[in-house]
Structures are given as structure tokens and as C-alpha cells.
Amino acid sequence: MLQDWLPLSLLQRCDEWPTRQTQRFQSVAEFYSATIRAVRSLPPLTALRAFEAAARHLSFKTAAEELALTPTAVSHQVRLLEDSLATRLFRRRPRPLALTQAGASLFPAIRGGLDAFAAGIAEVHQGVGQQRLRVTATNAFAARWLVPRLQRWCDAHPEIALEVIGTDAVLDLAAGNADIAIRYGLRPPAGLVAEELARDRFWPVVNPTLLASGPPVLRPSDLARFPFIHALWPETYPGAPTWRRWLAAARKLDPDLGPDSNFDGLSFTEELHAIDAVIAGQGIGLLSDVLLAHELATGALLKVLDLPLPGFGFYVAYLVDHPRQPMIEAFIEWLRGVG
Q1: What is the DSSP letter of 42?
Q2: Domain residue spans of the chain
Q3: What is the DSSP letter of 178?
Q4: Residue 278: exposed, middle, or buried by beta-carbon count in 10 A (0-12, 13-18, 19+)?
Q5: Which class is domain 199-309?
Q6: Is 200 left (phi over 0), alpha (psi -120 to 50) or beta?
Q7: Could you count the other beta carbons within 10 Å of the beta carbon of residue 333?
Q8: Fewer beta carbons within 10 angstroms: which end of the chain, N or C?
């Protein structure tokens, strides 16, 4: 028999092998089981929806109206989420409502996840056979530029349903997350067919009601009497048009301009919130002339000094040989003419 001539040490190792392998398989199974439990141990969807709506509007009341709940119910759901995370997501006092650092960090992730849920459910609901084009764009561009013009698209192309995915995350077109993207950046996105639609500049803009009293603004140092509205930029945008860069450029023209610390004010991680604050007359903002084209044209906002900073380009981009190529070309042609 085999055992008669095999060394004793080797026989012992052979006997131990099934036990060791069983232990190893059990360890791997326990690891994956723990991982799955961690992934599935998410807070309730109602709490995530309440947080996302409240963070987007910075108002429990407005979020409640959107979700068909009471403000108390929205606040309760947010409290449940905060308790599950053991951290506060909003600063409730003093008013107005504001995100904490943890809340500002969590907001884009929750918003992107809910957008993905909505897109997947809509795709299943509408069916594969319907002509539908999925367009992704930044939240600011979607809200301020694209959405106000969509009725003209519906009138021109009633046969093509449009799904707008507003998100500041860069969706993977190759993975099928969208058919066409409107990207914002210094140069065209790599690996895609891309065309520049527009390039913006950032101007000091203000609600004219702030200028109604007091002397006119003639030079940069005259802005010191107004609150500044800051839109915070992610680190992925080097050379972003910030107030700090604008002040550095303005000092070359006006040596009386004070230090940067004199121009603190409200700061927003969401560009749309900074725009809303300026429109509401809460201060002066350094904002995109593309996103505020309507307000600047109607006089709802005014440029206070002829000293803009260069912005970036808006690029429409898609994959080569996309199966929805005719719809993509129709949408791009419409974009060229609707601006």
C-alpha cells in the first residue's frame, strides 16, 4: 500500500491537508459574508432620500414638499441617518440650514447613487425598444442651461425621449451609464469624440438691489463693502477661477485693495447654491457668464467690473460608432443652434 513506503512526516501532512483546506475555505467564506453584510447594512432609503433632498434645497420645508412629507418627518429621517453615522450632517443653528463637513462630503455620493437608481428604474420602466437618449451633464449646466431649453428639443424632436442625468460625477460612457456627455474642463475629454460648445468667463456679478444705495463701484477696492459669495472648486480643477485668483489680479490694477481676509463671506460646495445666493442679493459672486446668460441678459444680475477670469470649456462627447449615433447627431445639431 502507498502508506507502507511513504515517510511518516509526509503521511502526517497529507492527513492534515483536508482540515487546512476546509479552514481556508471557511475563512474565505466568512470574509465574503462579512463584506456582503457590510455592503447591505445601509441606512434606510427613506432617510437617504430625505437627506439628499434637504441637502440639495438646504431646507427641510422645501424637501418635505418635494417628498410629500411634513418638515418634521424629513427632520426625523435626517436625525435617523445622523444617529446611524454617529455624526451631524447639518448645522441647524444659526439659520439658514447648512451642511457640516461630513454632510458636504456625503451629499455627492448619495445624490449620485439616487440618480443611478432613478436611471436604472426608468430604463426598465420605459423598455428597450423606445427611442431614448441619455444625456449626462454637471448639475449646474443641467439646471441653468439645458433644462430651460428642453421644451425646444421636445418641439423639434418629439420622437426622441430625453433623459437628463445631472451629476458632477464623471459617468463612464463605455460602461453604458449614458449615451452622451456634456463635460466641463480645460481640454476635450480623452478617448471620446468631442466638440466644444462654449467656453465661459467668470465675472463679479451682483443683484442690482445691492447697488441701489451707496456710491458706484468704480474699482476693485469698492467691493470691500459687500459680502462675497464663494463657490468652492474641487482640486481636480487647477487654475480654477476663484475669488483668491481674482483678487490677486485686481491688486495689480488697484493697490488699495485689502488682504484676502477682508473678503470672507458665504462659501458653498455646490455651485448652484452660490448662484442662488447671488440672485437672492446676499452678496457678490464670481460666476460663469454661460450659466447666468439669462440673468445677465435681462438685467436680473449685473457685472460690476470689467475684470473677468477665464473659465473652462463645455464639451459634448460620445463614443465612436455609438449604436444611437443618429440620435446623438440630432442632439448635437440642436445644441449648436439653441445656444
Answers
A1: P
A2: 41-106, 199-309
A3: -
A4: buried
A5: alpha beta
A6: beta
A7: 12
A8: N
The H or E element spanning position 119 is helix 101-126
Q: Where are the beta strands (DSSP E) in the chain?
A: 90-91, 98-99, 132-137, 161-166, 180-185, 193-206, 228-231, 265-268, 284-288, 302-303, 309-318
> What is the Cα–Cα distance from 205 to 289, expressed in whole angstroms?
9
| Per-position DSSP letters for 264-310, written without gaps between them | -EEEESSHHHHHHHHHTTSSEEEEETTTTHHHHHHTSSEE-SS--EE
> Residue 311: phi, psi to the nearest 5?
-105, -135
CA distances to 49, 200, 281, 318, 330 from 304, rounded to whole Å, are 39, 17, 14, 38, 39
Q: Identify whether the C-beta of residue 232 lies closer than 8 Å to the C-beta of residue 317.
A: no
The domain made up of 41-106 has a fold known as Arc Repressor Mutant, subunit A (1.10.10)
Compute the distance between CA of residue 113 and CA of residue 48 in angstroms, rounded to an integer.
10
With cell 420622437, the residue in question is 159
List the Cα angle 111/113/116 in 5-degree steps.
Answer: 110
